[in-house]
Structure formats: structure tokens, C-alpha cells
Design goal:
transcription cis-regulatory region binding (chains A, B, C, D), 2 domains, transcription (chains A, B, C, D), homotetramer, Tetracycline Repressor, domain 2, mainly alpha, DNA-binding, AcrR family transcriptional regulator (chains A, B, C, D)
DNA sequence: GTGTAACCGAGACGGTACGTCCTGTCTTAGG
DNA sequence: CCTAAGACAGGACGTACCGTCTCGGTTACAC
């Protein structure tokens, strides 16, 4: 497969990778420290040791910048672990409990809400947010092939294996079940409603009979 | 001896209801016009013909102000209609389809995302957002009694009647089913994923078997 | 005499005289320190402990600001002394020599050139610059009456007294003589041409026969 | 004393005359269009179709660049015509009137003030400005020999011929008279004071009897 | 011929300052 | 004592240029 022909550039200094990385690094750390609302381009530029114009040259808005940081796994890098004990219900409860525990913790408190605010600005962030929690994006792509083979299985992977194992009917709407659970997580994050053991059990029961 | 006799002493001007209403009105229209992010106190004050201090005297933040506007039903005033044909599945599909149609429309496009951004700031907005769509808040209160008697039934009402009618098992987690569906709506709003007929059917199928 | 009717102001905080003075003070000191070209609004605001908007609210440009500082005698406050020995020629030579000595000095070096640059921007500065050196503005006003009575006579005053004393013909163009001499000072400031004793003598000779 | 041997330059492209001319051309037209204050190196480079570095390689500052453009007669190219009718006074009045007319015109309005601002930055510009108007620099040099023979006589030339013709005394300070008149022009340009016929007459009268 | 060194256009870089907008506080005059 | 008006210190916005630093590409002299 031949690579795409290079853009017709006539001279000019090339983009500094060091600056790009420093900016994304700074964006991630400022985001974690202050949240999306109180994130400032000036603060990021200062933290990255970069001129403001270098940011505006490559990103059109705060939202685009955060989106790229999220896409590069600088925020929300890890998926949540889901076990595979053979009992789908208890596995989902473990996973959902872990997610709610993270939300209840000091770090997760604002982080998810900030990501939600960012997603309200920028579509890419919304898509990625969903993918990171559920383990599957809207449209399958090269990344999904890679993630399907990764050591750490996602909720969606677990649901698919449940179909194979006969725990769920063959035509069960796997992607939608994951979507509903992630949606519930987001809704509870927005309303600051924690999830105790009973709530988790009821949510899981609602989607897996 | 003070010159002012007690009886002529002014007790102080009372809060102007006209100003309060104008501010909430202006908040709602500015919110609809510009979204939560680009809402400004100065803009609201100017649109309401009011001094900034009058806003700061009674509300502590932009979030509080929007929350009160939402709570007074100036935004998101109507619940979404859900029919009762005796077939829960098709009734839920009708309702969910109507919600997604609203989101796809020009008005709903940004409105829900702005409300989500507002909810990320302010817990009350998140709770109210959930209640407005699903028809039930987290904790039952006086309002629920009123809404139960209102002419327009909510999704939660419909689910409860399904339990009574035997369409759902007696111990079905009604509130959580509504929560999951509302969460899915919010997640799709964030990721700009529309809901076609098949997607709606699958989401409903996932929660009502 | 009744005062002019007050502007129809309805409420609003009144302009802070402290801020106004601090700004003019800072303008003068920054001007002296850096010159007109390298004067910055941000620098003035910082030095005055004032927000930038407070400057932009009352002055439209750097030129206007410097103009007001000059008009308030914060720069170029003193006129140059001219003696009255009865010999006009030697008196003018004393005065002109003093002006050139000032220019040759460390302070005067850049100050006049900066004022010239400022005057190229702003008409008021040009007028005031002329008045400060020559002792007379273009159009006589209330200020001139005051200055005519001031203890320190200006070049123009000295020329007028020369007319009275018969040193100059009755119809001698007094204002124009002063103008020519001030113009020569400015021209030499621009071309960094100092004025030695002979040059001073020749300039004076050219205007007083 | 032998000068240091020239560096052994081996190879290397020679300076592009086309680029040099395009830069000076662009400098002149941008200067005329925007004035000295709003002249930018980037604007000149773009207008000349040249990289910024090509400018910085050969000129140290905006002032140097403008100075060279002025020295090459790209600005202020023509001297002002002075007739020789045998009547010095009326000849000077013609000349001075023409200069003031130029200043009053749309082109001259800002041009001289911009040159003055440039001169405040750069000594060469000040010297050249004086020479261009009066027809003589401070120190006689090779250029003066050339100008003395040029077809168009300068004010200084006219004054010198007046000495020869006996209109002025032998020891009249010719250079200083020109200097005073040029200075008055600059002063009036700075203070936006036009010169009507009477003012011109009085200025001339002040220096020639 | 062929290096090679200095030039060229282009344009990204770290910065500084611009002039605007908005924040939350304060100070007026007036009901 | 509330209200409309609006000035205040502060801070961030997004833009324009500064002067420097690469880039790939082009001469033109020295070998």
C-alpha cells in the first residue's frame, strides 16, 4: 500500500513535535487540575512553555485541544476492568460498582463531569468518552480490531462472550446494553447520585433480565 | 437623640418581583439563543433591563440562575408524550423516537447539550433534567404526587402501569429502566448519534426483554 | 453665574480621581523611562495599579494619554529661563544655549525626540510642545492671560518687551520669530545636531538682524 | 595601516538585487499608505514577495530600512522649486507657500509627520529630511557638490545667490536661515497649523530683514 | 564538473502587547 | 434598603507582529 502523497509544502519550518507534545501534556494536567470550565489557553501555553499562537495555529478551540488529548489517551487512559467468572450478572455488577467507586473517589469526582462538559462542546470527546467506558465506539475501525485483541476485555467484549456462552440470546442487542449502562453512569454523574450495591444490582437486572 | 422618630423609619424596599421575573425570562431566552457556555451575566442583565448587582444579590452563580430558570419550567417545560396502547414495547418506542426526533430538530440540537453542560456545573440542574425527561426525580416528594395526577403521564408512570397490568414483573426495577433510557438519550446527545427506528427498537428491547 | 446644567447621569459610580492621577503619573514616568515608541498601555496600567479597561474607558489612544499628561505639565513642566539684560541678542543666545544644553544632557537626549514622535501622532501634543518652549500657543486663551502674569517670562514675552523698548520695530513678527527658533531646536533635535556657541549666535542673528 | 584581509569567501550565492529593490519599493509604498507607526516588517515582506529573514539579514531595524528608502529618494524625492526673480523676499514666499500647500494637500498631510516620526527614531532620516527640504545637509560633502550643479536650485542655493547679488549682507548666516525656515515648516506640521499668505510673509520677513 | 557555502521564499517558534469582553465588587443617585 | 447605572481591578480572549530559527531549494564561486 503506497502512502498518501505528501502535501505540496514549499519551504517553511516544520511543525515542532516537542511543542505539540508539551501542549497536550499541559492540557491533560491542567484539565485534571482545574476542570474543563476553568481551563485556559493562556494557562496551557504557560505550562507548556509555548506561545499562545502555537496553540491557535493548530487547534481551533479549547474543545479541539481537549479532544485530541483525550484521543491520545492522556485523560481517561484506562478502561475499567470487568471479570469473567461465567456469571454475567455478577461480572457486570463488579464492573459497574468499580465505575461508581471511581466516581465517588476524589479524582473521579470532577473528572467525569468535566469530560461531560467538554463533550457537550465537542462531538469527538463524546464519542471517545463512550468508547473508553464501554470499550466500543460507534463505528468499528482499525482501533477496534486492536482493542479486541488487547489483554484487558471491555464490557462489550464481556457481553459478546456471554452471547457465545449462551448466557444471552443470540440476537441480544449487545452494543445497546453497554450504551444504556454507560448512559446511566453519566446520568448519575450529572445528578451526583451515587450507586450503592442495590442500585447497581437493579440497573444490571434491568438490562440482563 | 436621633432626629428620625421610629414611626417614620423606612423598613426597606422589598424585592422587586418584576425584576426577578425579567431576569429569569432573560436567562431562558439567552440560554436558548447562546447556550450555557456563552451565557453572560452582563448579557442577562442588559436583556432584562436590570443592574448586575440585582442578579448577584439573589443568585450566587450562573449555574444557580439557570437552575432556577429550569426549575420554573422556563426551559424544557414539556415532558415527552408517551401513549398507553397496552403494548409497552411499542409505547416506549414511540416515546423514545419522539425524544430523538426532538434532538434531531433545530431547536433541540443544542438545547439538551447546553443543559448537560449546565448540569455538569450544577447538581440541581442534573436532577431536574432527569426528572423532566423521565418524569421522576431521585426521591419521591410532593411534586410526584402532583405529577401522578397530571393529565400527561410520564415514562415512569407508563412503566408503573405496565407492572400493574402484568406486562412487567412485579419487582421490575421501574425507576432504573427509566434511568437507563434517559441515560442513553444523554449519551447519544453527547456523541451526536441520532437514533433511527432500529436503534430505538434495540434500546427498548434491551430493557423490556 | 449659574453653573452648566449637570449631564443627565442617572446613577452609576463616579469616575475615580485617584485612578486618573495614578494613570497620568505612570504615563509620565514610563514615558521618561522608555520613550514614546516603547510606551505600552499594559505597562502603564500595571505601574498605575489599574485595569487596562480603566485606561481605555477614558482615553482613546496612547497619543491621547500622553497628550493629557503633557497638558497637565507632568512632562516638560518648566519653561526655559530667558534673562532680560536689555540686550535682546545676548538674552536670546542665553536662552537658546540653555535649550541646546538641555538637549545635550542625558535626560533631554531622548525626551524631546519622544515628544516629537508623540506630536506626530497627536495634534494637541504638537501645540503644547510649541507653547511650552516658546511660551505662547497658537490661539490666545485664558491660560495665556495667566502665563502673561507668571513670574517666569517666556521668549515671546521677552520679544514683546523688546518691541516696547524699541529694540525691535513695532511691527516685528514676534510670534513668528519665536516659532522659527523653536522650529530650529526641533530640527536639530531630529538631526542630532548640537548647537555650539557660534551656531547659536548665527541662529539668533538670522532673526534679530 | 593595512586593513584586515577580506574573509576567504568560498562560494555562496550573491545578494539578490531584485529582492533589495522590491523591499525598498514595498517599504516606500507601505510607508506612504500606512505611515511610519503602522509600518510592519511582515507587511513589507509580503508586499515585496520576500521572506522576513531577507530583510533582517540586510537591515537591522525598521528605521534603517526607511532611512535607506528615503536616501534612495523613494520618498520625498523632489525638492521644492524656488524661483529666482531677483526679489528674494517674494521668492522665499513662493517657496514657503508651495511647501505649506503640499502639507495641506491630501498626500502631504501624513507623509511629513510620518517622516518626522521616523526621524525621531533614526538620525540619518532627520539629516536627510532637512537636506531634502532645504537643499543642504549639515556637513558639506560629495553630494553637495553634485546638488550645487543640479538644474533645480534649492533654497540654500537661492540664499547664496542673494548674497552674491547683494540682496543679503556678505556674512549673512545662509545655512541658519534655511534651517529656521525648515524648522518652522516642521513645527507647523506637528501642530497642524496651516500657513496662510500672511503667516508666510511674516515668517519670511523675520529672517530677511 | 562538482562541492559547498551563502542566499532565497516560506513559515513555525517563544514572546509581547494589543484592544475587547466579562467577572464579581464597589459606589453613586433615586424611589 | 432595593434598584439601575456604571466605574473599578483583574484576567482571559483571539489577533498582530516581533525577531529568531529551521526547512527545501537555488545560485555561483573554488576546487
Amino acid at each position: 500500500m503506497t502512502p498518501a502523497p505528501p502535501e505540496t509544502r514549499q519551504g517553511g519550518r516544520v511543525r515542532s513535535e516537542a511543542a505539540r507534545l508539551a501542549i497536550l501534556e499541559a492540557t491533560a494536567s491542567e484539565f485534571a487540575a482545574r476542570g474543563y470550565e476553568h481551563l485556559t489557553i493562556e494557562g496551557i501555553a504557560a505550562a507548556a512553555g509555548v506561545g499562545k499562537q502555537t496553540i491557535y495555529r493548530w487547534w481551533r478551540s479549547k474543545g479541539d485541544l481537549v479532544a485530541e488529548a483525550v484521543l491520545e489517551d492522556r485523560l481517561l487512559g484506562e478502561r475499567f476492568h470487568i471479570p469473567d467468572t461465567g456469571d454475567l450478572r455478577s461480572d457486570l455488577e463488579s464492573w459497574l460498582g468499580a465505575v461508581f467507586d471511581m466516581l465517588a473517589g476524589p479524582q473521579g469526582e470532577g473528572l467525569l463531569r468535566s469530560l461531560i462538559a467538554a463533550a457537550a462542546d465537542n462531538a469527538d470527546i463524546g464519542l471517545r468518552l463512550r468508547e473508553r467506558i464501554a470499550g466500543e465506539g460507534v463505528a468499528g475501525g482499525a482501533d477496534d480490531a486492536a482493542s479486541a485483541e488487547s489483554a484487558e476485555p471491555s464490557v462489550t467484549d464481556r457481553l459478546r462472550s456471554a452471547v457465545t456462552a449462551g448466557e444471552l440470546p443470540t440476537r441480544a442487542p449487545v452494543a445497546e446494553i453497554a450504551e444504556l449502562l454507560v448512559g446511566a453512569v453519566i446520568l448519575r454523574a450529572l445528578s451526583r447520585t451515587g450507586g450503592d450495591r442495590e442500585a447497581v444490582a437493579r440497573l444490571v437486572a434491568a438490562v440482563v433480565d
